[in-house]
Design brief:
Blueprint lengths: L7 E9 L2 E11 L3 E6 L5 E5 L3 E6 L7 E7 L4 E6 L2 H14 L31 H7 L7 E4 L15 E4 L4 H9 L8 E5 L5 E4 L12 H12 L8 E5 L3 H8 L14 E5 L5 H16 L5 H11 L1 H20 L5 E4 L6 H13 L6 H14 L4 H4 L13 H15 L8 H13 L10 H6 L2 H4 L3 H6 L2 H4 L6 H4 L20 H4 L12 H32 L17 H13 L29 E3 H6 L29 E8 L4 E2 L19 E3 L7 E4 L9 E4 L9 E6 L5
Parallel strand pairs: 11-14, 12-13, 12-14
Antiparallel strand pairs: 1-2, 1-7, 2-3, 3-4, 5-6, 6-7, 8-9, 10-11, 15-18, 16-17, 16-21, 19-20
Helix pairs in contact: 3-4, 6-7, 8-9, 8-12, 9-10, 9-12
């Protein structure tokens, strides 16, 4: 609060690049937010201080003093303040508040979600690394889960749990770590179902002629840790070759293929953090310029190189995914220190390989594993605290952009929508939650973030209805032939993400919000699902009341029905179809399968003639109480018309239906034996004969949910007469 000189500034105008009419209002400056409220108090604009990328005080104009604020969420605010002194005080305060000196001064340590109903412990243990290892099927014959780094003694920037080859000894791991930059030795990142793996690490300390016997043996052990140990392995260096060669002069470099056996080395040329930072700045300048012509804007987008860099990241990830998923070869991936380009490509290739990572839980678990557990310098790359600006780079922003490009490729393959990407990206920079504070797991443990701050994952789990993609077809994309998601290599595939980089230029956005339509659709879907559940419950109660189902014992309430239960249910349903008058015990008639004419009904071919002949003993009127009976024969329609007599018994897994044609207008049943159907005992499905006027020869399999449990007996017009 000591940095706030003027907490309230009146007579402020908010300028809009796409409108000539400014919005007048009042600015409020708090310890955590800058708030603009218009005069009518209809709209409020809240900017958390940690979202502020830069504050610029422009030259004084006749109408006041301009102040421009650029945010890390790509929002640009231009204020015109009447008093120059107020503008200067506001400028000085925002410079201090947007760049805290210590991590403990960030918003997460004072955030109190009073209206969110969020528990502090909620979400911290939601995506444990051990759970992801188990999801991949670890441990296996070739790979184990090791606790050698339990005290962060092997590598300070790695998690406590590591997946390494089963035959790797502690001496081999320690020797390999000593030869790698930041001691980030090769560890398994992803295990594919064919046994091939993605391994991540940092560059070796090779220099001009250095080598490590332990590291060479360890890399060879990784290559042999699969069912085909004689295969070669790829080493993917994500840097341009000239950068890797330059690092050799600093005692680092890359693996020498003369001493690393059965290795194919690839330099795949993703530029460093400095190039990416300059590229995004140029892109945002082009987005901010609303007065440029079409040609000027296209030239500016092209000269920024941002789309080229996103395409490059996708192509490297695609190479890794094809090597693992198609060629069944293991891949070792590294850049310089193994926490920027390595995190990008390992995460993206996992999304391409495994549909689990295209679900909401799977994607967030992937971010937790590749970016948080294995370390990424969020404090430096996102500029959370005041420091060296040369360390700031949009590495995570580029990853989110690449994920969106993949979502465009197959919209129905992803369970989440772009709103999840927006919230994830924004809260990485907001510091509202402790999830993305610190550079590695050790720093987060030292800061006691789980006890002092709230988790972003807990907050996002309460908003799943906003993140769910209604077009998602998970079962289809989990099939064997649909699991790989490899993007095309052509540069035309990568598009400019308007809804991200011009998100707050409302004049450029669609007039109808897709996210709002999705929210409405999700709510309607949820309401319909509840209605279906209620109807199922009522159906079961009705069937129990009619005696079709036996009440479930109290001890078996939670027991799932088996196929045998459905089979018995089918027999009960047949027993409930009575064709005689009420018997002495009060029932409506004799069970169908106990009739001497229909002994062994379940395995017989029963003709429509036989079924209709049984009706000769039925009661004069059709009853709807209890089990149904077939009505007495009524006067037939004229000869030129036709009718279809349907007798249906509805159960959860069996429907017996037949049709009879009355073409001559008489009251007699057809004499042809060709009108017949098969009554077959089936389980877990329901069967109805396909529509036919004369002979029923085929069956349709229906879902149990769509079958009316109430037996139906009706005479309806045929298709031709209709």
């Amino acid at each position: 609060m000591e940095y706030i000189r003027t907490p309230k500034v009146e007579n402020v105008r908010l300028m809009d690049n796409h409108s000539k009419n400014p919005i007048e209002g009042t600015l409020y400056l708090t310890a955590t937010h800058l708030i603009f409220v218009d005069l009518n108090r209809r709209n409020e604009t809240w900017i958390v201080h940690t979202h502020i990328q830069s504050v610029e005080k422009l030259s004084l104009v006749q109408s006041g003093s301009p102040l421009k604020i650029r945010c890390k969420t790509f929002q640009v605010l231009s204020f015109l303040i009447a008093e120059e002194r107020d503008c200067h005080d506001l400028y000085s305060s925002l410079l201090k508040l947007s760049k805290p000196v210590r991590t403990e001064e960030l918003y997460a340590f004072s955030y109190n979600p009073r209206e969110e109903q969020l528990i502090q412990q909620e979400g911290w243990d939601l995506f444990g690394l051990n759970n992801d290892f188990l999801q991949m099927g670890l441990p296996t014959r070739f790979w184990k889960i090791s606790r050698i780094n339990n005290e962060f003694g092997l590598c300070e920037t790695y998690p406590k749990l590591l997946s390494v080859p089963s035959l790797a000894t502690p001496a081999l791991l320690v020797g390999s770590a000593a030869f790698r930059s930041k001691r980030r030795l090769p560890v398994m990142s992803y295990l594919h179902k064919n046994g091939a793996v993605i391994v991540r690490c940092s560059q070796p300390m090779a220099g001009l002629n250095s080598r490590s016997i332990e590291d060479e043996a360890y890399v060879d052990l990784i290559r042999r840790s699969k069912t085909s140990p004689n295969d070669f392995m790829y080493i993917v260096d994500t840097r341009p070759m000239i950068n890797a060669v330059a690092n050799r002069a600093q005692g680092k470099g890359y693996e020498n293929t003369d001493v690393y056996e059965n290795i194919k080395y690839h330099f795949l040329g993703i530029d460093n953090i400095h190039v990416m930072r300059a590229s995004l700045n140029k892109l945002l300048e082009a987005c901010e310029d609303s007065s440029s012509s079409m040609g000027t804007w296209l030239d500016a987008i092209n000269s920024s190189g941002w789309l080229k860099h996103v395409h490059s990241v996708l192509q490297v990830s695609s190479f890794i995914a094809q090597a693992v998923g198609v060629e069944s070869r293991s891949v070792l991936v590294h850049c310089s220190d193994g926490w920027d380009r390595t995190a990008q490509t390992c995460a993206l290739s996992s999304i391409m390989l495994n549909p689990h990572y295209r679900t909401i839980d799977g994607f967030l678990a992937l971010v937790q594993k590749e970016w948080l557990h294995f370390g990424h310098k969020f404090t430096h790359r996102c500029g959370h605290i005041d420091g060296d600006n040369r360390e700031v780079s949009p590495v995570f922003t580029q990853f989110v952009d690449a994920v969106w490009q993949l979502m465009r490729l197959k919209p129905c393959a992803f369970q989440f929508n772009e709103r999840l990407l927006f919230d994830l990206h924004d809260h990485v920079f907001s510091c509202q939650f402790g999830t993305f504070l610190g550079n590695c797991a050790k720093e987060r443990q030292q800061l006691s973030l789980a006890a002092r701050t709230y988790s972003l994952w807990g907050w996002m789990m309460k908003r799943l209805d906003l993140y769910t993609n209604p077009l998602y077809r998970g079962s289809e994309h989990h099939r064997e032939e649909n699991q790989l998601l490899i993007p095309p290599s052509s540069p035309q595939f990568v598009k400019f993400w308007l809804s991200m980089y011009n998100r707050f230029d409302y004049g450029l956005q669609p007039r109808e919000s897709v996210s709002t339509a999705v929210d409405v659709l999700n709510k309607e879907t949820s309401a319909l699902e509840k209605q279906v559940a209620m109807l199922k419950k009522l159906r079961q109660q009705l069937r129990i009341k009619r005696g079709i189902l036996q009440p479930t014992p109290a001890s078996n309430k939670d027991q799932q029905p088996t196929s045998k239960d459905f089979q018995n249910d089918s027999q009960v349903a047949i027993d409930q179809l009575y064709l005689n008058e009420p018997s002495s015990n009060g029932s409506l008639g004799q069970p169908l399968h106990s009739s001497p004419e229909l002994t062994g009904l379940q395995r017989q071919n029963v003709s429509a003639d036989n079924l209709l002949s049984l009706n000769s003993r039925s009661s004069p009127a059709m009853t709807r109480k209890g089990s149904p009976v077939l009505a007495n024969k009524k006067k037939s329609p004229p000869a030129e018309s036709k009718s279809v007599l349907n007798a249906v018994v509805g159960t959860s897994n069996l429907v017996v239906s037949f049709t009879a044609r009355q073409a001559d207008g008489s009251d007699e049943e057809p004499e042809s034996d060709s009108n017949h159907c098969d009554v077959t005992n089936v389980s877990d499905v329901a069967a109805t004969p396909s529509a036919s006027n004369e002979t029923i020869t085929s069956w349709e399999i229906l879902k149990p949910d769509v079958i009316d449990p109430t037996p139906i007996l009706e005479t309806s017009p045929s298709v031709e007469s209709a």
